[in-house]
């Protein structure tokens, strides 16, 4: 594929990722309007309004990775984008909450398919010299989308109603479905052999037993637990004077760190070492946060340092997928594992940190960051040691091929 064609295809796949991230963010950005849309709904039901999209990934992430290979990447992406467009269109009518939650679960399946298939296609499309940059770009899809929704999506919802935001999202998904249908090569014929001859459980065990396939995900869960919890809880804890500044700058410094220093370091150290370096820098930032909390300037500086450090982890974790796995099949399984464990982190991180803050006060925040980051380093060291004892990737069983 020509370089300029690869460039535009990578951007189109990233655009599909922005639509997938907006499946979370479009509700998050109007969450304060939810009690008016569904009067009488309790806080648990309204919380599910945002988070239930992640449930399919939490349960089926690795299974979906196994299925995507057989269905075909082009077919999966286009169908998932079209399904997301239709679901967002129906959601814009704001049906009864039970129906809306069911639609959101279905939307989670669309989201899961996109975030598994798109990064694999990016890894196959990008020239080898630009692979680190392409994967770092992909890794920014959540932070970029949440920033864009805050800047553009919320004003649209305020001006034309929350339904207008969901309609705009439906249009985005449909447009990228059409674009990728034209740009992506046709899928090969579907295999006629059963996908799970050894059983789904055996396939899962093989995936997580491999220090090549599972390694990016085992570090990524530590990142998502930390990053999402900090984005949610740190700005309000910082006080009124820093709340807005920190909420807007934290995702931006993560994007900047991933696309600049992260890409430069990956070209010199490799993706896995950059993940561990990012976690190590986050530990240093946690120490500074603990020492500087009484000072607004030190609090802001330490928080942004942590955000930039986690940006290195963010980009390098996705780049580790093709770095550790040569075949498209193994990369798909690794992407499914990232989706699954990433959802574990996003689901558990915020309530866990909230509970720690209630029990131990605000100093639980730097302790939580340091503990999660140290765990990420330890997991990668163990996986690196295990890879060193093998001459090549553990071949998955027939169910995974």
From TrEMBL:
Keywords on record: Cell membrane, Membrane, Transmembrane, Transmembrane helix
Location of the protein in the cell: Cell membrane
Amino-acid biosynthesis in keyword set: no
Keyword Metal-binding found: no
Pfam family, one: MFS_1
GO molecular function terms listed in the Swiss-Prot or TrEMBL record: transmembrane transporter activity
Membrane topology of the entry: Multi-pass membrane protein
Membrane-spanning intervals of the chain: 45-68, 75-95, 101-122, 131-152, 164-184, 205-230, 242-267, 274-293, 299-321, 333-357, 363-382
Residue ranges annotated for the Major facilitator superfamily (MFS) profile domain, each copy included: 5-390
Recorded GO CC terms: plasma membrane
Name of the protein in its database record: Putative MFS family arabinose efflux permease
Organism: Gemmobacter caeni
């Amino acid at each position: 594929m020509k370089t300029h064609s690869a460039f535009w295809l990578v951007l189109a796949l990233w655009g599909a990722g922005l639509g997938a991230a907006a499946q979370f963010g479009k509700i998050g950005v109007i969450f304060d309007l939810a009690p008016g849309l569904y009067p009488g709904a309790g806080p648990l039901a309204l919380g599910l309004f945002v988070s239930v999209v992640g449930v399919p990934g939490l349960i089926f992430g690795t299974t979906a990775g196994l299925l995507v290979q057989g269905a075909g990447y082009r077919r999966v992406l286009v169908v998932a984008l079209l399904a997301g467009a239709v679901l967002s269109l129906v959601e814009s009518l704001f049906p009864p909450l039970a129906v809306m939650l069911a639609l959101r679960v279905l939307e989670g399946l669309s989201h899961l398919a996109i975030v598994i298939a798109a990064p694999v296609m990016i890894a196959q499309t990008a020239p080898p010299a630009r692979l680190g940059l392409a994967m770092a770009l992909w890794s920014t899809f959540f932070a970029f989308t949440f920033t864009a929704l805050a800047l553009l999506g919320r004003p649209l919802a305020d001006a034309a109603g929350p339904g207008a935001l969901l309609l705009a999202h439906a249009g985005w998904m449909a447009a990228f479905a059409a674009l990728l249908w034209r740009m992506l090569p046709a899928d090969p014929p579907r295999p006629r052999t059963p996908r799970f001859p050894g059983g789904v459980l055996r396939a899962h065990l093989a995936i997580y037993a491999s220090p090549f396939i599972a390694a990016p995900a085992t570090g990524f869960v530590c990142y998502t637990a930390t990053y999402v919890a900090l984005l949610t809880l740190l700005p309000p804890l910082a006080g009124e004077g820093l709340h807005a500044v920190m909420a807007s700058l934290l995702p931006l410094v993560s994007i900047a760190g991933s696309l600049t220093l992260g890409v430069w370091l990956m070209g010199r150290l490799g993706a896995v070492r950059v993940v561990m370096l990012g976690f190590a820098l986050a530990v240093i930032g946690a120490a500074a946060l603990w020492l500087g909390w009484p000072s607004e300037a030190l609090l802001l500086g330490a928080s942004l340092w942590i955000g930039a450090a986690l940006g290195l982890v963010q980009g390098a974790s996705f780049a580790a997928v093709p770095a550790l796995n040569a075949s498209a099949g193994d990369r798909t399984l690794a992407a499914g594992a990232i989706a699954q464990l990433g959802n574990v982190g996003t689901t558990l991180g915020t309530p866990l940190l909230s509970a720690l803050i209630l029990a131990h006060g605000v100093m639980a925040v730097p302790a939580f960051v340091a503990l999660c980051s140290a765990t990420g380093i330890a997991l990668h060291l163990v996986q690196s040691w295990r890879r060193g004892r093998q001459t090549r990737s553990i071949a998955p069983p027939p169910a995974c091929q």
